[in-house]
Amino acid sequence: MASASFLKWFPGTLYNSSLNVVVLHYNSVRHELRIFPPSVQFDVLYKLYKYGCLAELRGELCSLDVLTRMLKVVDKRHLLHHCFQALMDQAPGDHSSKISSLLAQAYVQRCNQDLMLDQQQIDNLVIQGLAVSAFLAEAGWLPDAENILTSCQGLLANSTEPQQMTRALECCHRLLHVQNGYCRFEEAERTYNQAMQLVRQLQQAGASPNLASLYSEFSTLYMLRSNYAEAYSWSVKALQALVANFPKPPLIDVLRQSAKACVLKREFKKAGLLIKQAVMIATEVFGDKHPKYADTLIDYGFYLLNVDAISQGVQVYQTALDVRHSVFGGINLHVAIAHEDLAYASYVHNYAYGKFTHARTHAERAIELMLRLLPEDHLLLSSSKRVKALILEEMAIDNPSKDVEKKYLAEAHSLHKEALAMAMRAFGEMNVQTAKHYGNLGRLYQSMRLFQLAEEMHLKAIMIKEQLLGPEDYEVALSVGHLASLYNYDMIKFEKAEQLYLRSISIGKKLFGEGYSGLEYDYRGLLRVYSIEGNVEKCIKYQNILAYWKLLRDEAQETQTSPFNELTEPLRVTDTLNQFMSMS
């Protein structure tokens, strides 16, 4: 008999062969599927997906009860996303006919029958709503998740028992997460107030639910509204509420958000500790193909970009995009956001080299996807438009054709104005995001040689940032450096330019050290000022400083490793908290 090692074909397993037969005769046996365990039923549905039987798959997953069963197969959740996204892509443009919308409508209809439901049925319906909405939110179908959670909340509106009130609080937490993700800030404020009221009622009743995840979502709300001090405060409260046996999936989210809040407060050591722990735990719990792993990488990339590890940040963002794309396919909100993040990181990374094709491709893909998935005036589009505008401005400056330059600058201007209008509607003028848009317009007006308008925009940006963030923040330094460039290269105000450059350098060195990449532009600006003024002594001084800076940058490049090499073993929760609290 021939050895198996010499066979060119190996027979499939008996189980796999059985699945193939079931799929082949699906219409005859589909009513029997629900007697099988959830894992077996899942494998049949996944075979339908792999064989392109999407009509049959849709018929199964349109059922709330079937989807709820499939969500119990936790180790194949990313494969369920493959199936679901294929059905979302298959549907016509009208969102009401998409499977996520049909599931939400079915759930709302069930909840509207609450007068006919006993307490056990209500409890089961709440559990189902929390499970299905979590899946939809994870997949980026946030409005449908919000509809489910709003109805779920209605079932618990008059609860007086601590157990029911605790579930109502969990519903508020999930609803706030969805509203934050979709930039529904007015609705999120109402949910925040409802959650605070429930917390007080539970405490008065002697109940003590763990509030770490809820406080973390409060932090997210304040962060999105650019109240970074309050966001940091809530993130610390979330960390303090953690306990030794806290479940790992929500622990990852608490660590991620706390890391982002630390970044925005320029507490970089604390941020590094937290986000690296989050990545390691996500890898351990979910593996490297799960959307939660990708979510954590997005925040790791944000940290790396903000600590001036830009090339590492690009690597991490690219990996996050690859994972999201493999899970969700192309037409998905989470994929669009990953394209935008990678576009901005690539823009920053290649700024000194003038290579923006890669960044532009991802920025345009982000906008294309968002326009397919969101209303055209949605706030999430403002950031993508801003990124594309920044890229177009640099491409215009570098282009030898005046006609092409004019075209790119005009498009960048239109995008910046649209982004500013969106931010003004959402936040008003006194907001960091609005200030960023003013600063971007200032840079663009300088490129368009509209110097008075450029100065006006930069001064507005500096004023808002100083009031909200303080005079020593990185964002302030950024705007100060841009205004210095305007005075130096175009408005011939060398004394003002010198003082602004020195201020920008001081903040940059304080936050990032002497090897900070952004210092190059300030040093070169000062050299130009001193050269024109004929100040030989200071020219020599800053030539030496710039040479030393280059040496530091070269050393940093030589010692830089993969961002994934910096990850070792996750710590216990208590050890992470002790390290965090001991950091100055």
TrEMBL record:
GO cellular component assignments: Cul2-RING ubiquitin ligase complex
Gene Ontology molecular-function annotations:
ubiquitin-like ligase-substrate adaptor activity
One GO term under biological process is: intracellular protein transport
- Matching Pfam families: TPR_10
Q: Which InterPro entries match?
A: APPBP2, TPR-like_helical_dom_sf, TPR_rpt
Q: What PANTHER family does its record include? A: AMYLOID PROTEIN-BINDING PROTEIN 2
The name this protein goes by in its record: Amyloid protein-binding protein 2
Please report the organism this UniProt entry assigns to the protein. Cherax quadricarinatus (Australian red claw crayfish)
Source organism lineage? Eukaryota, Metazoa, Ecdysozoa, Arthropoda, Crustacea
